[in-house]
Amino acid sequence: METKRDITFDIARSLCILWIVGVWHLKDYVDDDGVPRIINDIGNLITVAVLGVFTFISGFFLKKYSVRSFSDALYFYKKRLIRLWWPFLVAASTMYIASFVGGSPWFENPMSFVMSLLGLSVFMLPLPSTFWYVSMLLLFYLLTPLMLFPKRRIWKYLLEIAIELAFIILWMNGITDFRYVLMYPMFVLGMAVNNSHIAVLKSNGWWVAGVSILLLVLSVIYPKNDLLIIVCWQVMVLPLLIIVSSFLSKIEMVAKAGTFIAYSSMNMYLFHRHVYLFLVLMLNIHSLSSIRDATMPLWFGWLIALPLIIVLSYFLQKAYDRFVTAKYGGKT
């Protein structure tokens, strides 16, 4: 009898991308009066936590790779570059060109654009909006074979601590952004956690969810330290979202929708601003001074733009999978 695939992480990924694309970034393209106050109040905390979940999931699915030689590392890089880099190149290049046409460059300068594509935007402040995260993942992927290579756990741990310390030093010296300091531990945690840990978490779901919600609420009601609040949200939202996603995965319609959106999620992240910018351009074609100044009604964003992004991203991924299968003989 075939074992049914656990789609908990598909649901979690879909919820995360809906927040980023359908709420947090959408607010850049709607009038301020149309954005619910709670989004402006705690939206940044939710976004940091959601990106942490994304980063955790990315690390979680890299454990399947075994790196014991240089050829193993090259195989890993090939698989990840096929998966991420080419779509990233297309998304970043088109945004780079389109934003100049609209009169508001997306990247600070050409070097920022190049460094982002190489996964080295960590050394180039300010980070480019949206694409900083993909560039960060590229850097983490470049470091992954180093983290997978040591056979003894102590050497893995020491290496991971050393990398985190390097990010901290870079941040303290104004060379990189604090988000790298926050996201790298989530990536490492994803690589450390296995299915048995997730099973234990799910079996204690009500207790973990209750404690997580309580701590999240207390952190907002009694804020003491901004850094502690951010870390609290990043740590507590992860188990809470896994538990909620596990519950939702048992609902057939939600499971189907979540799987569909999760499959589309990478292209949703890469290309959603393209769609938003195109739509606001069309809606404001006669009164536009800069594409970053244009807006759309909130209802239009949720009912028209967001579904369009999901569907377009799905078919882009389908087309890319066919291309990869034909050229490389395997899926992305």
Can you summarize this structure?
Helices cover 74% and strands 0% of the residues. The protein has helices at 8-24, 37-60, 70-101, 110-117, 131-148, 153-172, 178-192, 195-203, 205-221, 226-248, 252-283, 298-328.
Characterization of the model:
The protein is globular. The two termini are 27 Å apart. The chain has 332 residues and is mainly alpha-helical. The chain has helices at 8-24, 37-60, 70-101, 110-117, 131-148, 153-172, 178-192, 195-203, 205-221, 226-248, 252-283, 298-328. Helix content is 74%, strand content 0%.
* Beta-strand segment tally: 0
Q: What is the number of helices?
A: 12
Mean pLDDT: 87
Strand residues, percent: under 5%
Distance between the termini: 27 Å
Provide the helix percentage: over 70%
Shape: globular
Gyration radius from CA atoms, angstroms = 20 Å
- Series of secondary-structure elements, N-terminal to C-terminal: HHHHHHHHHHHH
Uncertain regions spanning at least 5 consecutive residues: none
